[in-house]
Amino acid sequence: MEKIKMLTPLVEMDGDEMTRILWKMIKDELILPFVDLKTEYYDLGLPNRDKTNDQVTVDSANAAKRLGVAVKCATITPNAQRVTEYNLHEMWKSPNGTIRAMMDGTVFRTPITIPSIHPAVKFWKKPITIARHAYGDVYRDVEIVANEPGTAKLVFDGVNGQHEEVVVHEFKGPGVVLAQHNLDKSIRSFAHSCFQYALSLKQTIWFATKDTISKKYDGRFKAIFDEVFQEYKDKFEAAGIEYFYTLIDDAVARVMRSEGGFIWACKNYDGDVMSDMVSTAFGSLAMMTSVLVSPDGKYEYEAAHGTVTRHYYKYLKGEETSTNPIATIFAWSGAFRKRGEMDNLPELVNYADQLEGACFDTLNEGLATKDLVNLMEGITPKCLTSAEFLAAIRERLAKRLGA
Ligand code: NAP
Ligand code: MG
After folding, report:
1. 255-258 CB contacts, 8 Å cutoff, 24+ apart
2. Is the CB of 77 under 6 A from ligand 1?
3. For residues 382 and 23, what is the distance between their CA atoms, to the nearest angstrom?
4. How close is the Cα of 268 to the center of ligand 2, in Å?
5. Is 157 a member of any domain?
6. In the predicted model, what is the mean pLDDT of residues 264-284?
7. Is the CB–ligand 1 distance for residue 76 below 6 Å?
8. Ligand 2 mean position to 275 CA, how many Å?
9. Mean pLDDT of the 365-374 span
10. Domain count, the chain
11. What CA–CA distance (Å, rounded) separates 259 from 123?
12. What confidence score (pLDDT) does residue 280 get?
């Protein structure tokens, strides 16, 4: 078979530990035999980030902004222990944080579902994608402990003369007080990313706040979403999808009774809490993909899990591991599909579909990695090592592609 052609390169962001090992295996087994792969390669492995003073992370984010589609391997976010382990010059910041800030993007997380793994919520038939606003609110708050009676006030001094002062509370005894903020610009970017991604998936999008109680603060989120949606209204109609706004408590109740198959946009705190709930209810972190979408429609695909350190240490001792590569494979397939759509390459889109199809074929035959074996029901699973599992996927992919 002739290898599938690409036009524009993908931005390839390599990473760390067990996922770096899987990264190479996936390329060797599932990509290079079938695709005439074009990438602009950035090594975001911790040693190279340290060597380049983290410039490589900045360069890779700029490349993603320039080329439009990136695929990223999981990377270590250094802590004190990692500084010693890798003999680092500095405790470098989270690469994901740097890339997200540079792309001004929103992260969308979607579970990969299979018939033999039943969601904890029996009504859920299709994946629910969570989009979390990643700026402000309680994550950038300021807080005061009042140790004695007194007055707490909220003051705004504008540079052009707006002056507002409100009493938060007249304390009769000890208590606590907190102030939080957000920015129109950040909310607007969030809204654009959400509507862009809904169109890209052709899925309805929900958004919820508590604007009945927080009329100005949450009211602003609702108003900005409404305003930005006007730009997308016609495209949504043409795609047969909807923007649905409701109150957060109503949204939670409806999500539980829904079939899934939609995107749920959440304010920062709601997204933090609900993404953990939804991902756990769907099964496994190793079956969760993640994509960063910028407001102007640039995409960076990755797995939601980390570098799987515990497995890497076993691998270094020469032991075979049964680490699940599915979410990382789906990061690649997501990137190929998007690149194929942007460059009008139906064969590349088809390759992405067949690659995912081959993963489903393998899992639906009960061939799986260790993490999934205990979750599967109604099927007798066979536990494979990562290498055996990838070989099984390759066999099915070759068949699907007629290679
Ligand atoms: P992790 O790498 O997600 O792994 C936590 C545990 O979850 C593993 O020990 C394993 O459980 C299970 N697991 C996760 N992915 C799996 C897979 N593909 N196959 C099988 N089991 C899987 O999280 P962590 O151990 O907290 O973090 C490790 C490193 O990753 C840290 O340095 C952190 O900074 C980094 N991290 C990076 C990203 C990112 O780049 N997006 C995200 C999160 C964390 P068992 O050990 O029980 O088998
Ligand atoms: Mg959380």
Report:
1. 255/128, 255/206, 256/121, 256/123, 257/123, 258/123, 258/124, 258/128
2. yes
3. 23
4. 10
5. yes
6. 90
7. yes
8. 7
9. 94
10. 1
11. 5
12. 86
Which parts of 202-293 fold into alpha helices (H)? 217-229, 233-239, 248-257, 268-282
DSSP result, 31-46: ITTTB---EEEEE-SH
The mean predicted confidence, pLDDT, of the chain is 96
155 located within any domain: yes
Whose structure tokens read 């629910």?
128
> Residue 381 corresponds to which tokens in the numbers above?
């699973």
Cβ of 98 closer than 6 Å to ligand 1, yes or no, is no
Q: Is 19 in the pocket of ligand 1 (CB under 6 A)?
A: no
**Domain-embedded: residue 241:** no
- CB distance 309 to ligand 1 below 6 Å: yes
pLDDT digits (tens, 9 = 90+) for 222-246: 999 999 999 999 999 999 999 999 9
Residues 370-382: pLDDT tens digits?
Answer: 999 989 999 999 9
Reading the block at residue 103, the tokens are 């792309």
Q: Is the dihedral of CA 325, 331, 336, 341 positive or negative?
A: positive
Q: Does residue 376's CB lie within 6 angstroms of at least one atom of ligand 1? A: no
Contact (Cβ atoms closer than 8 angstroms) between residue 102 and residue 61: yes
Please name the amino acid found at residue 259. E
Task: List, for residues 39-70, the tens digit of each pLDDT value.
Answer: 999 999 999 999 999 999 999 999 999 999 99
State in Å: Cα 355 to ligand 2 middle.
30
Q: Which atom of ligand 1 is nearest to the CA of 22?
A: 18
Q: Whose CA is nearest to atom 40 of ligand 1?
A: 74
- Domain of 156 in residue numbering reads as 142-179
Residue 168 placed within a domain: yes
